[in-house]
Specification:
Blueprint: H1 3-9, E1 15-17, H2 23-27, E2 31-33, H3 39-46, H4 61-67, H5 77-84, H6 86-96, E3 103-106, H7 109-115, E4 119-123, E5 133-136, H8 143-152, E6 156-160, E7 164-174, E8 180-182, E9 186-191, E10 194-200, H9 207-224, E11 228-237, E12 242-248, H10 258-261, H11 266-274, E13 288-295, H12 308-314, E14 319-322, E15 332-340, H13 343-358
Parallel strand pairs: 1-2
Antiparallel strand pairs: 3-6, 4-5, 4-6, 7-8, 7-9, 7-11, 9-10, 10-13, 11-12, 13-15, 14-15
Helix pairs in contact: 4-5, 5-6
């Protein structure tokens, strides 16, 4: 999705792909297939580049430090470690006084019991889309989490089970020169640990709370030294606060609505930030934009490309983004954006289209 604004701006991209035919390799001709954990491969790929950025947080910190000796790496390893390691992030945010759930690194079920049940256990590194996260209510529930951590060579972080009304996301773009663009705070809904639906802006969000969320995101971007997009995932608690849940230093699923619903998409602003170009306006184009992910279901019924005739004929204003991936249960294979003046209309249009592409609706559905 970064390739589209790059092509429009005349910015050439070079890609390190994990395999031939993956989504980005389908649209970035200049690509190398290799292992992002191999420093020699990384050096080969970045040779002659003006800057380096990435679409996930799992590149080893030491490799990024090595690359940074010869060219700009955005975000830099000093910032990125706060998205790579949840324990590092919690310690840093705690020192900054940023509101977070109560948390502690724990070594065994006894320490989890001392922390208090029920709670959430997370691997400090490597988790995403609900992986590496366990809700536990007693010592017997902890075995899987500690076994997974031991196998991966990482630690376990315990966090309080927050009583929250909903999940929010505050996104900002920041350039090396310090310019910041803040997007509207959005509401995100999870399905089996995977982002399923985003509403921009978050409905009925108190303006003061929205401003507080944006200020947290802008402060983190500045004090952590982030270059590019930063997504701050938050809990809106039942007692009217916001708590930081996770950080992502890259274009994020909660910002896919910006492709069609904002003046400047998160992908274009990430590119502009990495190149230290003036940032684009983050304002919404319409009162409401709804993004619904297309998650893979039964491969025999998923329509994908065959879903276009119905979905586009039913809703000519619908925007569809497919990733060139094969269907697999729970896999993100695309998303749809619907925008307009009426929230309920946008929700219905986006949900219907996503369900149609998944194959969840019958042939006679209108």
């Amino acid at each position: 999705m970064l390739a589209e604004p790059a092509a429009a701006m005349g910015v050439p991209l070079r890609l390190l792909a994990e395999a031939e035919g993956v989504s980005a390799a389908q649209v970035v001709p200049d690509h190398v297939v290799g292992d992002y954990t191999d420093l020699a491969t990384l050096r080969e790929v970045v040779e002659g580049c003006a800057a380096v950025t990435f679409d996930h947080e799992h590149v080893p910190t030491a490799h990024l430090e090595a690359l940074q000796e010869t060219l700009p790496v955005h975000p830099g390893p000093g910032a990125l470690v706060n998205a790579q390691d949840k324990a590092v992030m919690r310690e840093r945010l705690g020192a900054m006084g940023v509101p977070c759930p109560r948390n502690a690194v724990v070594a065994d079920p006894a320490e989890v019991a001392a922390f208090g049940f029920p709670c959430v256990l997370k691997t400090t590194r490597g988790g995403y889309d609900g992986k590496g996260v366990w809700f536990v209510s007693g010592p017997d529930d902890c075995a899987e989490a500690f076994a997974a951590a031991a196998s991966a060579g990482v630690r376990i972080l315990a966090e309080e089970a927050v009583e929250f009304r909903r999940e929010l996301s505050a996104q900002v773009a920041r350039s090396p020169s310090g310019q910041v663009a803040a997007y509207p705070v959005v509401q995100s809904t999870q399905l089996d640990g995977i982002c399923h639906e985003v509403v921009a802006p978050a409905p009925d969000l108190d303006p003061e709370l929205a401003l507080a969320a944006q200020r947290i995101a802008m402060r983190l971007a500045e004090e952590l030294g982030v270059t590019g997009m930063l997504a701050v995932e938050l809990f809106e608690t039942t007692d009217g606060r916001v708590l930081v849940n996770e950080l992502a230093m890259r274009p994020h699923n909660s910002g896919h609505w910006t492709q069609d619903g904002a003046v400047t998409s998160q992908f274009e602003n990430h590119l502009r930030a990495v190149l230290d170009l003036p940032l684009g306006a983050p304002e919404a184009r319409a009162p409401w934009t709804v993004m619904v992910n297309i998650l893979g279901g039964d491969a025999e019924t998923g329509r994908l490309y065959d879903g276009y005739p119905h979905a586009l004929a039913r809703d000519p204003r619908l925007r569809v983004h497919l990733y060139g991936k094969s269907m697999r249960p729970g896999r993100k294979v695309g998303h749809v954006n619907a925008y307009g003046d009426d929230l309920e209309d946008c929700l219905e249009r986006a949900r219907h289209a996503a369900a149609w592409f998944r194959g969840d609706l019958g042939e006679d559905s209108e």
